[in-house]
Amino acid sequence: MSDEMKPCPKCSSPYGYAAGNGTWACPECDHQWNPDDLQEEGGLVVIDSNGNELQNGDTVIVIKDLPVKGAPKPIKIGTKVKNIRLSDGDHNISCKIDGFGSMALKSEFVRKA
Fold this sequence. Notes:
single chain, mainly beta, N-terminal domain of TfIIb, SH3 type barrels, 2 domains, three-stranded antiparallel sheet, 11 strands, elongated
């Protein structure tokens, strides 16, 4: 076995170790991966405020009051947003919020529900 460690692609833990047969394992989240497969995927990865990976269709919760231009009130902390869509760019979550309509949010202001 090698003394080398690789960061986990799921939780970013720096303690990934070689588990044998060309696979690697993370002791913190129990994720196992093949480094050759990761280079081929290359998809969009969006992380919430707690470090969890978000997927299309997830439900998230707003962790901070967010002011909205042109609206008389902000999006309140604790607002649940269902069925998100991930997009590329600064505001990497597209969604619909009751009372506000279609919006784009930054993933740093939400957590996975």
